Every structure is written in structure tokens, then in C-alpha cells.
Amino acid sequence: MRQFIGSSAVVLYPGQTAGMRAVVQRVREASVEVEGDVVAETGPGLLVLLGIAEGDTEREAERLAGKIARLRVFEDEDARFDRSLLDVSGEILVVSQFTLLADTSKGNRPSFTAAAPPEVAETLYELFCAALVEEGVRVAQGVFGARMRVTLVNDGPVTIVLDL
């Protein structure tokens, strides 16, 4: 498979990712629980599961945050996807999830070698959330590296996968 990024071509092999990946779900509400305590919750808006890949930079984090803030997945008065999170004053819950970068091309056990090391991923996760705040979005966050229980009420359902 050949994917074009900017003006250069990148050849991707099965299971290989080009970079940051986000699963974006439109929700009526969502929350994150760690060790029995709710640590973050949001009302109507988006839940973002964020996977950060080896080689990702601040540029990708900021670019993806801007794209998600402006992603038109909310309906206008004609029931068309024509409004963004910013247009509807929605909220966002961001949960770091390295398993989004799983390579399952060989065997039955996923490999996570494409995921960024935790110290790099955590920095970019925090930068991604800060970039959303700079866009004017109210942001709630899961706990990086924790075992979390994520609860959501999907609205639509609307689920979009974004790869950088």
C-alpha cells in the first residue's frame, strides 16, 4: 500500500503504521475509571482513543488535535455532518491507547513495536491535549499508562479512524 504524506510517498507494509492513530467517537457522554474511581468524564462531544507511534513529533500531535477539533461529525439543521466540536461547544475525553498500533500481520499475538516508548508517548499525549485546549475545546483526560475502564454512550453511532 502506498500512502502520500505531503509531497512524499511512504510505502507501508501490512501491519505497519505511518504514525499517530486516533479513533474518534461521537458520544452523548463518556467517562474513565481507574481503580474504581471516576477520574475523568465528559458530556456531549467526542471520545478520542489516541495511539502514538515511534517517530511521531509535536507537529503531528498539534496537527491531529486541530483536525479533530474541526472534524465535522455533528449534524446541522438538515441532518448533514456540517458542524465541528467547536461549532457545537462540545467536550472531548482523550484516552491514550498504545494498542491502536498493534501489528497482527504475523501470528495471533499482537506486536506493539510501532508504538512510541512510554516517556515519548506521554509527552506527546500531553501536548496533544494542550493543543486541543488551545483550540478552545474543554478537555478531560484518562490517566496515561493506567489500566482504565472506559464507558461511553456512542451517539449515532459515529466512529472515525484517523491516521497521520
What's the short version?
By secondary structure, the chain is an alpha+beta fold. 19% of the residues lie in helices and 40% in strands.
Mean pLDDT: 90
CATH topology: D-tyrosyl-trna(Tyr) Deacylase, Chain: A
Please write the string of helix (H) and strand (E) elements: EEEEEHEEEHEE
The strand count comes to 10
**Considering DSSP H and I runs of 4 or more, what fraction of the residues is helical?**
10-25%
Q: First CA to last CA: what distance? A: 15 Å
Q: What proportion of the residues form beta strands (DSSP E)?
A: 35-45%
CATH superfamily: D-tyrosyl-tRNA(Tyr) deacylase
Would you state the CATH class? Alpha Beta
Shape: globular
How many helices in DSSP terms? Answer: 2
How many strands, what sense, and barrel or not for the largest sheet? 6 strands, mixed
Output the keywords.
single chain; 164 residues; alpha+beta; D-tyrosyl-trna(Tyr) Deacylase, Chain: A; 6-stranded mixed beta sheet; 10 strands; globular; disordered N terminus
Layout of strands and helices, then pairs:
Blueprint: E1 2-5, E2 8-11, E3 21-34, E4 37-42, E5 45-51, H1 58-70, E6 74-75, E7 81-83, E8 91-96, H2 118-135, E9 138-141, E10 149-163
Helix pairs in contact: 1-2
